[in-house]
Amino acid sequence: FVGASKKPADENESAGDKPADENEPAGDKSAEENEPAGDKAPTGNLTAPDASPVLHHIERRMCDCCGACVGACMPGALRIFGEKITAARAAELLLEDADFYEQSGGGATFSGGEPLLQADFCAAVMRILKDSGTHIAVDTCGDVPWAAFQTVLPYTDMFLFDLKYVDADKLATWTGGSVGRIVGNLRALAARGALCEIRIPVIPGFNDDDAALLAMGRLAASMPNITCVRLLAYHNLSGGKYDSLGMRDAMPKTAPPTARRMEEIKTMMSGVCPNVILSGEV
User: Could you tell me which of 19, 39, 33 has the C-alpha nearest to residue 77?
Assistant: First the structure.
């Protein structure tokens, strides 16, 4: 959930919290090595159906993320992404790049997932980083209790605030999110003078119509603390994650917006909001 860079990541989806990856073993291993370790599976949550095209099948409804299957299975067949870590250790790892922060003018960006779901942990890491003079940004969807923002606000230099829709019904239908809470948090940050970069993921068929985009631009223009509005073109790089989790990709054939369309959106939104930029622009 924590990354170091000269500028915040431009992708609408962070890569820090990848799901467990199911890797098929190399084909040149012996038959004995390729046999499933069925008698070693911890609680029966791994099966190998005869008709299955893959070596193993994870019964995810039974999985409690204990990680025992990794040790029970053949080496390298399963991996766990992510691990428990202390705030001190997280800060230690981040400060290994302190020279880069200083040379680039960047710092540490807390992203996710949603980092403010772990606001206390984030604040604990931030306190250590601040003692070293590290610039801190928080990448958030904004749909968390205001108390989470209050927890990290004393240590945060700027917020990278995702904005996907300002139509309450449509956002609730598509994401289950609350426009009222998101906009309320954004206004509360503005009232406290917290710097915010608005980041709009332009998603075909969801929020790429002119009316939706202009509404978000007008909202951003109404607040004095917005440094810029950054337009992020939707991408479909998450397909591998759905495969690894055995889930259905809800948007498998959705093509990203073209470069020409993104330029058109930038020009249109610049008519209602200052400092609209595309992903990758400074």
Answer: 33
In tens, the pLDDT along 232-276 reads: 999 888 777 887 777 888 777 889 999 999 999 999 999 999 999
CA distance 61 to 196: 39
In sequence order, which residues have a C-beta less than 8 Å from that of residue 253 and are 6 or more positions away? none
pTM for this one? 0.76
More confident residue, 204 or 75: 204
Tell me if 118 sits within 8 A of 87, measured CB to CB: no
Q: Token match 């073109």: residue?
A: 233
Give the residue, 236 or 208, on which the prediction is more confident: 208
Distance of CA 43 to the CA centre of its chain: 31
Q: Is the peptide bond before 76 cis (omega within 30 degrees of 0)?
A: no
| Amino acid in position 65 | C
Residue with tokens 């980083």: 129
Task: Enter the tokens of residue 36.
Answer: 């499933």
Eight-class DSSP state of 132: T
Going from the C-alpha of 132 to that of each of 95, 96, 123, 136, 230, the distances in angstroms are: 8, 12, 14, 11, 29
Residues 6+ apart with CB under 8 A from 173: none
